[in-house]
Specification:
single chain, alpha/beta, Rossmann fold, 8-stranded mixed β-sheet, 5-stranded parallel β-sheet, about 40% helix, globular
Length: about 450
């Protein structure tokens, strides 16, 4: 009971929310980022999934602060599930809250990092079936995609109407510009400011889309080594939690670096490792995706316009900073900021990072624009090659067959346009302004999608 009261200081003093640890950090930051995830909180069960350190807890506290303007403090409960060890404890915690304050009207319950609690959904189901979640908005967060998804499948009919699943992902380049309050977003014609846009894009390639990393860089002009260490440890810890060995994970990540932006299959990834089972490789890469470390796209079946699951795929890190942090783990780099700042001067390395950023952007934009409760970007974005492997396109969107080829180079070659024989809607994303059918990458990423 003491812990419950401590975590909800607004019950005693409404203004106590101003002294919250996470909100104080926001005040001290020079960037400003409060994503609008859930349009309207109406009774039902919501999930927010996303990688660690992305700001899920901060989002909850910002939401609580906004609610306190119009909702009685007793009707709002927050609990960090790191402290719970069973679904029975979830039941006891929520019941303790209800018995202590006897709130009337709509109640708002926020359970943070519920993934820590085994079979947490059984506790929620029990409370729901007993009628104790009537007139309740229940928001849960978690850092493990598969755990939350599987758990919600056991709660049929209890979610409520409308979209209930949301993801909080690293900032896109446009969101980065918004977070740093860039005046560029106020310009009517961004093409006139391409030089300035490219300068910010170079900074974004160093920081990726994690608010704490962006803030550190904007404050200090460099990224502290401890941040790379923090994100590295998050990935190691989460994989260990799911029973994945550090040794195997490191070997597979090294193969992902070696084959980055290239076609691979599970057997390809096993090469150079002592893991012989392609099933094991698949399980590990799926776990990498489930903790939001990687994304991958399938090759498209051109005739049926569907993913060709048995064939090859392309694997990318879900954010540049995750790439750098995993690299630190795999290769022991001790001065990551200077190392990657130098690496980004290398044309080949830079091209690979940029290609991954474009996928991150497309996947997040599709996710944000989808009303589907269980949207999966892998069903909507593919890459494509013709039968002779003479033409390859980096990404194709299923809904309108818009194709993209990423060409971060000083000069385009004629073969860059070969994909137009197969796709009427082909956009070359380039380094500079190159004419019809092309668009600078920084401009494309900065424009509203």
């Amino acid at each position: 009971m003491e812990e419950l009261t401590r975590l909800n200081p607004w019950w005693k003093n409404k203004q106590a929310i101003e002294d919250d640890f996470h909100l104080t950090k926001v005040k001290q930051a020079i960037i400003n980022w409060h994503p609008r995830l859930i349009p309207k909180l109406i009774p039902g069960i919501y999930s927010i999934r996303g990688p660690r350190q992305i700001g899920k807890t901060t989002w909850l506290k910002q939401t609580i602060k906004e609610l306190l303007r119009s909702v009685s403090p007793e009707n709002i409960m927050f609990f960090n599930c790191d402290l719970l060890h069973s679904n029975e404890n979830i039941v006891k915690t929520i019941r303790a809250y209800l018995e202590l304050l006897h709130p009337t009207g709509i109640k708002y319950i926020f359970l943070d990092e519920v993934s820590y609690v085994p079979d947490w959904q059984l506790g929620v189901k029990h409370l729901y079936d007993c009628g104790e979640l009537k007139d309740t908005v229940l928001v849960i967060t978690g850092s493990y995609s598969i755990d939350i998804k599987k758990a919600f499948e056991k709660l049929p009919g209890r979610l409520g109407e409308g979209k209930r699943h949301y993801k909080l992902l690293p900032l896109t380049f446009r969101e980065y510009l918004s977070a740093i309050n860039s005046p560029l977003l106020e310009k009517k014609n961004l093409k006139l400011y391409l030089e300035e846009l490219n300068q910010e894009f170079k900074s974004y390639l160093l920081t990726g889309g994690f608010p704490a990393v962006i803030d550190c860089y904007k404050k200090n002009g460099f990224i502290d080594e401890s941040l790379y260490e923090t994100y590295k440890n998050w990935i190691i810890g989460d994989l260990e939690k799911w029973g994945k060995s550090e040794r195997n994970s490191k070997q597979i990540f090294k193969r992902i670096f070696e084959t980055y932006t290239s076609e691979v299959n599970w057997d390809t990834l096993s090469g150079g490792t002592d893991i012989k089972s392609h099933t094991t490789i698949k399980e590990y890469v799926s776990s990498f995706e489930d903790i939001f470390a990687v994304e991958f796209v399938h090759k498209m079946d051109y005739n049926q316009k569907i993913p060709d699951y048995p064939k090859s795929k392309k694997i990318y890190f879900s954010d540049p900073f995750i790439y750098y942090s995993v690299w630190k783990w795999c290769f022991g780099e001790e001065n990551c900021f200077n190392f990657f700042k130098e690496q980004l001067q290398n044309q080949l390395f830079l091209s690979k990072i940029v290609e991954g950023v474009v996928l991150n952007h497309l996947a997040k934009c599709l996710e944000l624009n989808s009303n589907l409760d269980r949207f999966d970007y892998k069903d909507a974005i593919f890459y494509w090659r013709n039968r002779t492997n003479s033409v390859e396109l980096d990404f194709v969107l299923k809904h309108d067959m818009q194709a993209f080829e990423v060409k971060w180079s000083e000069q385009l070659r004629s073969e860059s346009f070969a994909g137009r024989e197969y796709f009427d809607k082909l956009l070359l994303l380039t380094k500079h302004l190159e004419g019809k059918g092309t668009e600078p990458i920084s401009l494309f990423l900065a424009e509203k999608k």
